[in-house]
Every structure is written in structure tokens, then in C-alpha cells.
Amino acid sequence: MEEIERGASFLSGVSLIREEDPKKTGGRRGDRTRRRNEKEEVCSVKEETAVRQEEAASKKEEGKSRFEELPRETVRSVSFKGMFFWGLLFLGAATIIVPRITGRPLFPIYVLKDLKSLSLPLLPLLYTGSYMTRAWGPLTFAFCLGGGIIAFVSQERCSRLLASGKGSAYVAAALTAPILTVCSCAMLPIFGALLVAGAGIGPAVTFLLMAPAANVMALFFTWELLSWKLAVGRFLASALGAMVIGYAVSRTSFGKVKEQEYAGRKRLFAGAEDTESFWEKSRRGLDEALGLAKKILPVLLLGVAAISFVEAYLPPPLVAKYLTGFRGVVIGSVIGVPTYTPTLVEVFLVKAMLGLGMDPAAALAFMIGGPMSSIPSMMSASRIAGWKVVGTYAALAVLLGIAAGGVFLWAGVSL
């Protein structure tokens, strides 16, 4: 009997254990199910990534095979245009880099010394010709770089890096633009290319304003020839102001409309770059560069011709006489608009005017307001972004120059 009772108690214990086991077993099964689901999710992500990589590789191979299947004459034409595109790009870059290293221009430059002695019909023609002997190289580089951005940079990547709603996009535009030592007119093809490639109107405007106002070489010459105080003030005011102006333009209704217009124009061709070979993209870069040149260059040259009369008949001593105090700050910022100067030239002009009695605060206002909002660049930029966008950023740029000069004046900064 005792053995039977012990057996019964043993069986009852086992039954109790079995009654408790379903909860524990259910928990263990839940853990196993969860781990299995996690593994399945990881595997699905890996499979999707592999599929995307295979699709990208197949598109690349498809583009390569399609390029190889083209007629030999067509392949030669595409390859020649592609090589010509890269040749122009490197030649334009050489005209910018070599003079910075050697101190001599790569090609001869024609300089007009006495503009007043020229007749009225000859003045704009010779002045424009003199300008082109200096600017054809940087303009060639800028147009080719703009065409290359459109052809090689995908819309998704450009939109991701330079979207109007991202604060980091404005910081990136303000910090990368100074690498390009070009004037405001040479920045226009790059500005248009960024919009076509998918950048937001705000970061694109920041990029457009920052490069001519505070590029690396302009800051270096400002530091060496004028003062480190002017160089630091120029960089800080230009960077902060360009970001604020770009953001302000992006919040306007006409800025949003222009951004959507370029976004829609780009989507019509989205996906074409995925199946193009390197040489086909290079050929397309040349075509885009020519398109930018046809759109911008005529208006740019017209603006330069108009500036010839201002430079010929505006007496510098009279300007220097009134460029003192807060009035001088206001005049310095405003006078930079019609007094167009190529990049780095404004430093030497300011140095001469400082010797005539120009206030340092007015000098800072001139070096910010002028490069950001010169008449030739505004006329050309209106073909890209419209007069409402251009008028807005130009007016804000002049106010920025006045504000920066006002701070210098209030702080009593001396050189």
C-alpha cells in the first residue's frame, strides 16, 4: 500500500509539473518564434539588398552592353564628345590653378587702362573682350562642372544631401562653396546644375552666395593685403548670412514653386543615368554644359557691357570721400551692386580705397554686398530662378552687408 501511495504521490507531482509546464513551454516557444522572426527579417533585408545590388549591376551591364552594341561611328562620336568634355573641364581648371601657383596667367590677358579715352561704341565691346580674356577659363570650368553635376549626380543623392528642409544642407553648402575660387557669374552654371540635379532652392542659393563672397583665395588675400579682422569678419558674416538668406528664400511661395518646377523637370529624365555608360554620361555632361552656356552667357555679357560705363565714369575719389561712418557702410554695400569686380579684384580695389580714407566697416560691407549681388550675376540668375528669387536674395545680401559693416562700426574695429 505504501508503494502504491508513493506511486500515486509521484504521479500527482508529475501532473502538477505538467500543469505548470504549458506556461513555461509557451514562453520558450514565444522566444523561439521571436528569434525565428528576427532571423527571417534579417534574411529578408539581406535578400532585398542583394536584389538591389543585382539590379544595379544588371543595369550597369545593360548600359555597357547597349553602348557596345551601338554602331561604331556612334560610339566614336560619343567617346570623342566625352573626351572633349573632360579636356575642357581640366583646361578650365588649369586656368584657375596655374596662376595661383606661378603668379602668371596661363594665357595672355588684355587689360584696359584708360576707359574714359575710349569712344562710347568701343567702350562696352573692348571692356567685354577684356573681361573674357580673364574669365573664359573659369567660365569654361564652371559650365563643364555644372554639366557634370547634372549628368553624374543622381537626383536622389543630391536631394538627400541638399534638401531645403535639412539644416545640415545649408551648413554643407556654406562650407563646401568656398573651395571654388570663382566670381558670382562663374557660379551661375553650378547654381543651375544643382537645381536641375535635385537640390533645394535654399541650399543652392546658399552655395551661390557663399563662393564669391568668401572663397578660400579671397579670404587669403583679404588676410594678407588688408587685415585678419576683415578676413574673419568676411567669412563669418558671409557664412551666416548665406545660410539665413537661403533659408528665407526657401520659405517663400515663389521659391517653393521654382523648386517644384525643377524637381518635376528632373523627374522626366529620372532613371536614365542608371543605364548610361561613363562616356555617355560625359557626352550628356557636354550637352548640359552647352545648354547652360546658351542660357546664361548672353545675358552675362550684356550685364558686363553695361558695367563698363559705371566703371569708366564713376570717380573712385568721390566714392571714397563718402565711404565713412554708417552712411559709408550703406553706400559701400549698395555700391558693390553696380561696381562689378571679378573675384579677388575687389580686394585690391578696397585696398586702394582704404588708402583714400575708406572706413573698414564700409570695406567689409562692400566685400559682402557686391560679390553676392552684382548686376551681371543677377541678370543671368533671373534666367534660372526668376526675378522674384533673385530680387529677394539680392536685397537680403545688401542688408547683410549693411548689418556686417554696422557691427564692425559699432565695435570700433580698426585695421
* Residue-averaged pLDDT: 76
Q: How large, in whole angstroms, is the Cα Rg?
A: 31 Å
SSE order, one letter for each helix or strand: HHHHHHHHHHHHHHHHH
Let me know the number of strands. 0
The proportion of residues in beta strands is under 5%
Count of runs of 4 or more consecutive helical residues: 17
Distance between the termini: 114 Å
Compute the number of structural domains.
Answer: 1
Class based on secondary structure composition and strand pairing: mainly alpha
Low-confidence blocks of residues: 13-20, 267-272
Helix amount, in percent?
over 70%
Inertia-based shape: globular
**Biggest sheet character:** none
Oligomer: single chain
